[in-house]
Design goal:
Keywords: Cell inner membrane, Cell membrane, Membrane, Sugar transport, Transmembrane, Transmembrane helix, Transport. The chain has 350 residues and is mostly helical. The protein is 73% helix and 4% strand. The chain is globular and about 60 Å long.
Length: 350
């Protein structure tokens, strides 16, 4: 009896033994990003004293915040199997609409913000509808949207203002309250934390809960993993993907609103090229380019890596051109690590 008891208590013979701590960590898509963030944090903490100062921390958090807001939304979309190349330009489009209505049409800032939000959600819904209706790759559809918005931004801004910039929103009615929501600063010691950092944290928390705790989150993984299979089990694929495109548009509105309220001016070409940084941050955070796998927490950490690296290079007094080399190496490494982690996660889940 004693021998039998000892044999049955061996880990390999326990039918209800849970997975090991290592296996539980391996299945987390954000593990690679967390390790990378730790390396970057330690590296710049050692080589420059300014990095860990209150002002330094506030600076790289500020740098990462708007990128993080967009990266979280883009991560949800990528997990759902799609891309949005119009996300960067959307930040400028919404800011321009808000500024032109408030400054040149004399509207209350809050009404202008509501109109720009409606515009963003409409464009996002249109992107999703066209992708699902036509079957065209979202890369192509949103590239068209990107070009259209870029042309509208430049053309309409020059038509209304005679320049490619809109400024002067601080004198508009309703700016004080809107500015508090989107551009307030909180002093913590010597550090000044921007409102965009708060938006980043709150939206990341909401997105993480939606992704892992709700039926809609399951739908996102399902349509990203296999659209045909998702439809076969009753997942509302069209509604899910349209809502995901609307989510990236909403994030663009939040970032655009933070920018225009904080800086009080916006350029018509603002945001161009940033869409690739959003995608890279999501990939660094554990999202696969093929969909069905990823983490919004990881995307937020990916944005944090961007902020720490970009400002760390400045604090170290290096040539900022090296950041692009870092970005390229980071992207390639992340893709390789993510593929390896996904294969290991699949073996663990079996």
């Amino acid at each position: 009896m004693t021998v039998a008891t000892k044999t049955s208590s061996a880990p390999g013979n326990l039918p209800d033994a849970g997975p090991s701590l290592l296996n539980r960590l391996i299945v987390r898509p954000e593990l690679g990003a967390a390790l990378g963030a730790a390396v970057v944090f330690v590296f710049f903490s050692v080589i420059t004293d300014r990095f860990l100062s209150p002002l330094g921390v506030a600076t790289w958090l500020d740098d990462a915040s708007t990128l993080g807001i967009m990266a979280v939304a883009v991560a949800l979309l990528m997990i759902g199997g799609e891309f949005d190349l119009s996300a960067g330009v959307m930040t400028a489009s919404t800011a321009l609409i808000t500024a032109m209505l408030a400054v040149h049409a004399g509207w209350n800032v809050w009404f202008a913000l509501l109109v720009s939000l409606a515009f963003a959600l409409t464009v996002g819904a249109l992107n999703g509808w066209v992708v699902m209706r036509t079957g065209l790759p979202s890369f192509i559809v949103t590239l068209g949207t990107f070009l259209a918005l870029q042309g509208l931004n430049l053309g309409v801004t020059r038509l209304v203002t005679g320049t490619v910039q809109v400024s002067g929103i601080r004198s508009a009615d309703g700016y004080d309250s809107a500015g508090w929501v989107f551009a307030a600063t909180t002093n913590i010691g010597d550090a000044r934390i921007q409102a965009s950092v708060v938006w980043w944290i709150v939206l990341t928390a909401i997105a993480a809960l939606v992704l892992v705790r709700t039926r809609f989150g399951n739908w996102i993984f399902a349509v990203g993993g296999s659209l045909v299979s998702a439809r076969a089990v009753g997942v509302p694929a069209v509604r899910t993907k349209i809502l995901l495109f609307m989510t990236t548009a909403f994030a663009g509105w939040v970032v655009g609103s933070c920018n225009i309220m904080r800086f009080a001016s916006v350029q018509a070409n603002q945001g161009v090229g940033l869409e690739f940084q959003y995608i890279i941050a999501a990939v660094v955070g554990g999202c696969l380019l093929t969909g069905g796998f990823g983490s919004v927490i990881g995307a937020a950490i990916g944005a944090l890596i961007f902020g720490m690296a970009r400002q760390g290079i400045v604090f170290a007094r290096w040539d900022s051109d090296w950041f692009m080399l870092f970005l390229g190496i980071l992207l390639l490494s992340a893709v390789l690590v993510n593929n390896a982690f996904k294969k290991r996660a699949e073996r663990v889940r079996r």
